[in-house]
Amino acid sequence: MRIGVMALQGGFAPHLNALTRLGHEAIEIRTAGALEEAEGLVLPGGESTAQLGLLERSGLLVSLEAWLDRGGPVLATCAGLIVLASRVRSPQPSLGRLDVEVERNAWGRQVHSFEAVSDRLGLPLVFIRAPRITRVGPAAEVLDTLDGEPILVRQDAIVAATFHPELTADLGVGRMVFGEAVMAQRAQA
Fold first, then answer.
1. 159-186: pLDDT as tens digits
2. Mapping DSSP to helix (H, G, I), strand (E, B) and coil, where does residue 119 land?
3. Where are the beta strands (DSSP E) in the chain?
4. How much of the chain is in helix, strand and coil states, percent to nearest 5?
5. What is the pTM of this model?
6. 144 phi/psi in degrees, rounded to 5
């Protein structure tokens, strides 16, 4: 499967590596043409306001909205989650695709980065200037938590994480989003 990783800003290279380890063809998305070739999509961590600005200036924002309308599988991590959230506590635009409210950098500044293990799935977690999910609406489902707080959510074909699964050796989150069984189920729908 050809999975695109939005490569305008942020930590996209580790996602490309993780997708390759999962057996997918991983491509960098920098143009609307490249986005059209993608069967799945990763919106990586980085700086959400910079990413939104670059999407708009590059002309990719309209193409991204159209791609999301088609309902292909998406993994959004950290800043990618903020970009898709329905509401961001600090005044910032977002695409409103995920029924969650988030607070930017709420797990702490860069110097407060940490590793942990998730409550439900036992996933290894890496938090770097991570957002906190402060509200989960009825359209979204909590898949995993840390100390009882939601850190991994799903709404339709979008799975979003406040942490960075691509920075661990565990491929469970990527497999959850882009795995063979998930893709076969979506093809039948």
1. 999 999 999 999 999 999 998 645 555 5
2. coil
3. 2-6, 25-29, 40-43, 74-77, 85-88, 98-103, 114-117, 124-127, 132-136, 141-146, 149-155, 158-161
4. 35, 30, 35
5. 0.92
6. -155, 160
34 and 28 in contact (C-beta within 8 Å)?
A: yes
Closest CA relative to residue 51, chosen from 1, 98, 89, 85: 85
* Short-list 58, 70, 69, 67, CA closest to 31: 58
Task: Please state, in angstroms and rounded to a whole number, the distance separating the CA atoms of residues 103 and 100.
Answer: 10
Report d(CA 80, CA 153) in Å as an integer: 13
User: Which of 177, 88, 96 has the alpha carbon at shortest distance from 131?
Assistant: 88
CA dist., res. 65 & res. 67, Å (int):
5
| Arithmetic mean of pLDDT over the chain | 92
pLDDT digits (tens, 9 = 90+) for 37-54: 999 999 999 999 999 999
Give the whole-angstrom CA distance, residue 123 versus residue 134.
Answer: 21
Residues that are catalytic:
78, 164, 166
Give all domains of the chain, ordered by start, each with its CATH number.
Answer: 2-188 (3.40.50.880)
